[in-house]
Amino acid sequence: MTRKESDEKMNMKTKMKMKSETKTETKTEKGADKMTETPKLDLSVAERTARIVELERESVIQTYTRQPILLVKGAGAKVWDAEGREYLDFVAGVAVNTVGHCHPSVVEAITRQAKELIHTSNLYYTENQVFLAEELKTLTGMDRAFFCNSGAESVEAALKLARRATGRSEIVAAVHSFHGRTLGSLGATYKAVYREPFRPLAEAKFVPYDDPEALAAAVSKETSAVILEPVQGEGGVNVPKPDYLRAAREICDDCGALLILDEVQTGFGRTGKWFGKEHSGVLPDVMTLAKGIAGGLPMGAMLAAESVTDVFQRGDHASTFGGGPLVSAAALASIGVIKTERLVGRSAEMGAYLRSRLNDEIDALEVRGLGLMVGVELAANCPEVVNQARERGVLLNATSEHVLRMVPPLVVGKEEIDRVVTVLGEILEEP
């Protein structure tokens, strides 16, 4: 073999090796892309649902009791499962999807922001968070905001702020209250089954809800804060008399305690006002927000009067993800939808219509609520009613054995309300 032939052979081997490496890299890259895709189950629809249920049981800590459907799509006040069945959603992610599932304006805002900046932490300034804080100040009448990721976190921040501001540790809360399941918020949550396994806790004094005299007797110079829901949600949609929160304000002022209003569920038009406190005209020292704030993305906020917030020093509290660019963009878009589509007024109108139809058509022990936050007390077993309604294409929630909670998206219409009332009536008429 000549030198020239040898060089040509070596060049050919080198080219073949490079080509092989390129193919290998391409195959690896394609494989990596494939691995990052959402896994798909090559099964029938029914088998897919069953398999997801099985995988969830094997892979997710079992702290939830889930309904046996696999939801894959949502729009407005409706959702669809993997088998294509349509449901009217009167749970709305537990009062979260205020502007409806996948509202185009919220989707567009999320998409646009996701292309620019998703997360930075709170070590840097981001404009969406500041714009949102300004918007919330205007809407609530409060002075400053702290952002977090959930209702329980917002309550934790409120309780921590109250202790820092007053130098006291005692909390007063209401019977049937719900403020969260983290260790701090759990101490102010009434239901014993939630608290007992995790004692000792910093537990609140619990007094009857909507009872100013009981509240006055419980609050003292040792009380850091009174925490109340303007309408109790998890407790069964309990609506107090308008003077209750006004009395609470006076009681707190007399003893130097802070008044915390937990508006996690009642905020953003849910009760037919922007916030539940507006029904009584009370301005709290601190208020907590979450659920309907960001169009379905996880977000919480604590707002407070400047006289209180000044006691929080740098480093006293923090949240890595709180008020990030993406969720703040979603929140600003959601608030914009509530304004432009006049959903606060719509909540009041549709809520009145829903309660009227329920009173006319349903043999209920009581129908109560404000706006589109409605409780229906029944003699029937409500968890079983929830199961039967689901089979008929309606999603409901039972807060207890005899109370249904209805918190549909604020975009719900009369025809959808009529269908839900008809389904509920048919269930209750069956032997």
Q: Give the total of domains.
A: 2
Beta strands, count: 15
Question: What is the straight-line distance between the termini?
Answer: 98 Å
Largest sheet, described in full? 7 strands, mixed
Mean pLDDT: 92
Going by helix content, strand content and strand pairing, the class is: alpha/beta
Order of H and E elements: HHEEEHHHEHEHHEHEHEEEHHHEEHEEEH
CATH superfamily of the largest domain: Type I PLP-dependent aspartate aminotransferase-like (Major domain)
* CATH architecture descriptor text of the largest domain: 3-Layer(aba) Sandwich
Q: Report the helical percentage.
A: 40-55%
What is the fold named in CATH at topology level of the largest domain? Aspartate Aminotransferase, domain 2
Order the strands across the largest sheet as they lie in space.
4-10-9-8-7-5-6
Cα gyration radius (Å): 26 Å
